[in-house]
Hints:
Rossmann fold; 8-stranded mixed beta sheet; 8 strands; elongated
Amino acid sequence: MSIRTIGIVSTGDMGHAVGRTLREGGFRVVTALDGRSERSRKLAAQAQIVDAGDLASLIGEVDLLMSVMPPSAAVEFATQCAALMKSSGAAPLFADCNAIAPATSRTIAGVIGAAGADFLDGGIIGAPPGRSAPTRLYVSGDGATRLDAIARPDMIVRTLDGGIGAASAIKMCYAALNKGAMTLEALVLIGAKQLGLSEQLHRELSESQGQVLARMERRVPWLAAEDEPKRNEMLEIAKTFADVGLTPRMHEGAADIFNLLANSSLASETRETADKLRSLEEAVAAFAASLSARDAAD
């Protein structure tokens, strides 16, 4: 199968960047903005991604459809696509590139396969293409090497053995460490604030773990931005580990931290609107205030 036209849904932070680099690589990249947010529309325009209108029109004109969205929406989106494929007869290659458990990926594979389309399991690791080091797109499933054709200098494609679920699994393991560590950092900082020891902890970290403190200062102040996908990602990680006999509790707890941040005064921010000058202390104070408000409500 020759891939010439690629559909990207949705054009959020990651999706629009993937679409942009694919367009720069010579592919025709389209999306379906019907019912999408103003932010998705703006990012699609910035990346010069063509709007096909509705999803049915998109499915009818693409060779490859890449699902790049919050994990909670992945199964519903695939089910909607499968229904449209059955009714139209169109059957583009479907690549789920979301932060989902291997079991969830296999569920989606069954839905898409029943519609007569081929399915590939994908997992995106790293920042969106063009920001720093090349993004890594892991792919598994029958014919995974078909996506070698979309590799770009800022988006490496790596195929994995192991069938459907392997790419999702490596994404889950990586995110378990990366985003899981972020929630641990937030937990410790909020806890120190509640215990009246923020200044003392900051001094200790600056003296004994300066690199850890610097990392906290870089990422914790903006942890509440777009946190809903992160909460659901933690639950998918918990499911992944439970399915292989490991405790899900660590990442269920991480989801609880993101739930806390969702109730903070910073929760409405996006990557574009977040205050880039905010200090770590200001962010922790906002997070701790949401904890106090929750306790008062209880």
